[in-house]
Amino acid sequence: MLIDTHCHLDAAEFDPDRDAVYERACAAGVEIIIVPAVELANFDAVLQTCRRYPGCVPALGMHPMYIDRHRPEHLDALRAAIEIYHPVAVGEIGLDYFVPDIDPATQEFYFVEQLKMAKEFDLPVLLHVRRANDQALKQLRHYKLKGGIAHAFNGSPQQAEEFMKLGFKLGFGGAMTYTRALNLRRLAQDLPLEAIVLETDAPDIPPVSVHKQRNSPEYLSQIAAELAALRGISVEKVAAVTTRTAQQVFGMDVSQ
After folding, report:
1. Are 44 and 15 in contact (CB under 8 A)?
2. Which domain holds residue 226?
3. Which end of the chain is more exposed for a tag (fewer CB within 10 A), N or C?
């Protein structure tokens, strides 16, 4: 059993064949898919996707790359949606200082308000953080959440340690499968296996086997195999440990 801790199965890229994509993922051993929202406008698509496919569960949040679409009143709508639909996490939220012209102050406003909401509802968070690990860690230390996942982690070993100290797990996906990704591959080898969860971020960040093609949750099995090869352990152990860790993050029944 595998858990894809971050997959945008609601995305338009899957409109032509979403049923088949889900079936192939199940056939590849992916039994649970966490589907995070990115803005108020796609809450319905995320929730409908999760109603249609029994293995899909929603996270609801407002992504930093969409701040031009966010409005303060959308935070009220997010709170209401959490109360009604009980997502497993607040996400995808965070800070992105890689993309130019996305105002850092506005990003921080929405990030902090959603951290407060996660604390209020005692939910983990799914973090999108690019070139802003230290800034994100500063806020996480202040709000002291129950944890979550640093999605698509690409920081230093020291930053990884700080996330782990705060109860966070680190998401590894397709980027790790590229031999040139030396930092990621070293982290995948050296971090405690119990600190790692698997993800695809489909339709983005495909593994090397489908470079420049649409990513898909079925490829999570390839990501698991690559992690196993890097660590010199069985893929069965990778699947068992990462699945158990993901279940713990999201408060799922670890006996599944």
Report:
1. no
2. 2-250
3. C
Number of domains in the chain: 1
In a domain, 255, yes or no: no
Neighbouring residues of 70: CB distance < 8 A, sequence distance ≥ 6: 39, 40, 62, 110
The CA distance from 32 to 248, in Å, is: 13
Rounded-to-integer distance, Cα 56 and Cα 33, Å: 5
Per-residue CA distances from 97 to 30, 93, 150, 179, 218 (Å): 32, 13, 15, 25, 30
Residue 173: strand, helix, or coil:
coil
224 belongs to a structural domain: yes
Backbone angles phi, psi at 104, to 5 degrees: -60, -40
Residue 256 domain-assigned (yes or no): no
Q: What CATH number does the domain containing 177 carry?
A: 3.20.20.140
CB 145 within 8 A of CB 124: yes
Give the tens place of pLDDT for each residue, 116-162. Answer: 999 999 999 999 999 999 999 999 999 999 999 999 999 999 999 99
Q: What is the token pair recorded at 3?
A: 């858990």
Look at residue 65 and tell me if it is in a domain.
Answer: yes
The model's pTM is 0.97
Residue with tokens 């199965």: 9
Residue pointed to by tokens 């607040």: 90
